[in-house]
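Weekly modeling sync, notes
Attendees: S.R. (lead), two postdocs, one rotation student

Agenda item 3: backlog of single-chain predictions. S.R. asked that every request posted to the team notebook include the full sequence so nobody has to chase files. The rotation student volunteered to paste the first one in as an example of the format we agreed on. Action items at the bottom.

Example entry:
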Amino acid sequence: MDGNSISIGGDRRIGPGQPALIVAELGQNHNGSLSLAESLIDAAAWAGADAVKLVKRDLASELSREAREWRYESRHSFGATYGAHREALELSADEHLALSRRARRHGLAFLATACDLPSAAILDSIGVDAFKIASRDLANLPLIEDVARRLRPVFLSTGMSQFEEIDAAVAVLLREDSQFVLFQCTSLYPTPYEQVHLRSLATLAARYNAPVGFSDHSRGVLLPPVAVALGATVIEKHLTLDRGMKGTDHSCSLEPEELRQLVRDVRAVEAALGRADKPLAPGVDVVRTKLGRSLVTRTALAAGTRLEAPMLALKCPGDGLSWFDLQTIVGRQLKRDLGADEKLTWDDMS
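Predicted structure, as returned to the notebook:
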C-alpha cells in the first residue's frame, strides 16, 4: 500500500490531492425494509454522494443468548427482545446483493460493515468495494485479520479506542498488506462538537502514514467540509429520508437535501483549498493595474533634479514603478521637467 493513498472499485483513488469520497451511511435506517433501502440509495445518488454503506450481521455469531433475550423496551424497538429487534432490522444476503446492484447502476461504490466472520464471507461474495470495521470491532483482531485477507480495502473506525488498540489493529492490516483508511470518529449519537476532535485527523495520518477519514455523528453539515480542509479523504454521514422516523440513528442523520448541501460544501472547500505555492489567479494583474499603486511626484520637479525618496508618493493606478523600485531610483537625475502628481517612468531618469 502506498501510505498516502489507496484505490477502491478499481480506479477510484482515495488520498491527499483527490476529491473526498463522500459515503452515505445507510446503516439500519432502512428499518429492515428493502424498498426503504432502495429509496435511500436513490436519494444518496440524487444528493451527489460517491458511495453508500450498509451493515451486515449474523446474529448467531454476534449476540450471546443473554444479549438476544434482553428485554428491549424503547420507542425505537422493533421487537420485544434485543434479538428480535435486531432480527427485524436485518436484510438478507440476497437483499444486500440487490442493493449493491442498484448502487452500481447509479455509479455509487458499495461498502458494508462486516460485524462477524459469516457476514464478511457474504459481503466478499457480493463483491463489496471496501469493508468497514465499526468502532466497536477495532479490538476484534480476528475479524480484522479475516477481512484484511480478503484483499479488499478496509475502512477502520476508531471511535471507541485510543492508540494502543489502534496500533494493534493497524499492525494486523500492515502484516496482511491491506489497503486501509483510518477514521476519526466519536461513538456518541449525536456527538457534541467539543467531543469531535478534528485535530486528531493529522495525528492519525502522521502516526500511521495512511489516508484518514471522518465518520461524523454530529448534527448538521458544518463539520465535514472542515474535516476535508484538515486532511480527511473520506467523509461518512448517516442518511435518512425523515429524521422523525422510528429508529435510533434517524435523529442524527441527514435528510437528502442536507446531504446534497454537504456534498456541495465539501466540493466548494476542495476547490478553495487550491494550491500550496501561492499562485496569482488569472485576472489579478488587471485588478492590480487598476487598484495598485505607482510612484508619482509629490511636487513639480525640474530637469536635473537628483531624486530623493521624500519627493515621491504612491498612488493609483498600479501600472508604473513600484515602491520596490525606489532604491534603484534614488540618486538618479531627471531628464525632463515633471509636474506635480505625475507618474514616474524609467525614461524620465538618467
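Discussion: group reviewed the output briefly. The first helix runs from residue 34 to 47.
Action items: rotation student to repeat for the remaining queue; S.R. to check formatting next week.
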